[in-house]
Design a protein that fits this description.
Blueprint (H helix, E strand, L loop, with lengths): L18 H11 L5 H25 L3 H25 L8 H20 L7 H25 L12 H21 L9 H38 L1
């Protein structure tokens, strides 16, 4: 991550203050692992999750749903520890922001499109692609706002951690449904419902972030005008 990054430009996560989390970060920091390497590992987990869902499409092995859920959580851990090692561990680099942001733009679509393989209807994959595109758009709007002088805006209701939590929950529910046979005859499955919620929530997120940028930039311009 970039050495100029401060707490205002980092996603607010209470888990950073956990004693266990901090001990793990210290262990990673002491084993000559760089934050950029951790960031790249998030792509590896996303690719594994995508492959697991592709396998589920062809073989319908429910254990692959749990593999994908585990990959999602592992990706989030990478997102957590790359920042902690970079900032708290003092290993930030000038090019770190590339590694901090670009892997997320790859990992999000891989996971979201991947779960599309578990939908019941052909339209489910189109829905997954739409969610993936809008997920990237939410991040683009945040970065655009920062380039225009606003603080990084991580608001939801469907920011990255919300999207990944929704997918994880849906995968676990689908696994349990397959295991027990409960509610398997519904016209749509839990993955399709989760994708609908994600798409609508992501669109609201985009709108809220755009409004924030507009109000912040216009408010700053008015204040500057008053000073002249």
């Amino acid at each position: 991550m970039d050495p100029k990054i401060n707490d205002a430009s980092r996603r607010p996560l209470a888990v950073r203050q956990s004693a266990l989390t901090q001990r793990i970060a210290v262990w990673i920091n002491n084993h000559d692992i760089t934050p950029n390497q951790i960031s790249l590992m998030s792509i590896v987990f996303a690719a594994l999750g995508f492959a697991a869902m592709l396998g589920y499409h062809f073989f319908a092995s429910s254990v692959l749903l749990l593999v994908t859920a585990l990959c999602i959580q592992s990706r989030l851990l990478c997102n957590l520890f790359d920042g902690m090692v970079a900032i708290e561990g003092g290993k930030s680099t000038a090019s770190g922001e590339l590694f901090n942001d670009v892997p997320d733009r790859i990992a999000d679509p891989l996971f979201i499109i991947g779960v599309g393989f578990a939908t019941q209807h052909e339209s489910g994959m189109y829905l997954a692609w739409a969610c993936a595109l809008v997920a990237v758009l939410t991040a683009y709007i945040r970065v655009l706002g920062v380039s225009m002088g606003t603080k990084a805006d991580f608001r939801g209701p469907m920011a990255k951690q919300h999207r990944m939590a929704l997918l994880t929950g849906a995968l676990v529910v689908l696994f349990l449904q397959n295991l027990t046979g409960f509610f398997t005859d519904l016209p749509v499955n839990i993955i399709e419902l989760a994708l609908v919620v994600m798409l609508l929530g992501s669109l609201v997120t985009c709108w809220r972030r755009l409004v924030f940028i507009y109000q912040d930039v216009e408010g700053t311009a008015l204040k500057d005008g008053d000073k002249q």
